[in-house]
Amino acid sequence: MGFASGFPKLFITDLDGTALGGIRPYARLPDELSGLLDELNRRGCAWATNSTWDVKPQMQLVYASAVTSRPTYLIGGAGLQLCQVSGDEIHPVEPYSSRMNTLLEKVVQTELRRSSARSAERSLRRR
Q: What is the pLDDT of residues 22-73, one digit of tens each?
């Protein structure tokens, strides 16, 4: 592989339709991809998954696959979850994880207030 600044340090892949190839059911990583991930790892390139899936189902997919290396990171919930993998344990990356949870809570509360206000407004118009 010809990389201008050396071999990559981190390879990140999506799952649905990318790493999993769109072939359902999504039970495991394809063996060819598992081999690639292990080869990248042997050559010093860490790997990660980035998906809308929560991080635990992502890790279960890894366990069910032929891949022997482990991801360095699992990114889930469309970027709301960022976890580092140590052996078979998943640890939220801080302060990122706490900040994203706080932000999500604020957005949900704001949207719930807006939704309630719109519903009340519609009810008043119907009367």
A: 667 788 899 999 999 999 999 999 999 999 999 999 999 999 999 999 999 9
| Residue 89 φ/ψ, nearest 5 degrees | -105, 145
Determine the Cα angle at 53 with ends 52 and 56, to 5°: 145
Residue closest to 85 by CA, chosen among 69, 74, 77 = 74
Classify the C-alpha dihedral 53-9-22-31 as positive or negative: negative
Q: pTM for this structure?
A: 0.80
Q: What is the largest CA-CA distance in the chain?
A: 70
- Give the residue from 16, 23, 17 showing the smallest Cα distance to 52: 16
Torsion angle in degrees (nearest 10) through CA of 27, 33, 35, 40 = -130
Backbone angles phi, psi at 76, to 5 degrees: -130, 175
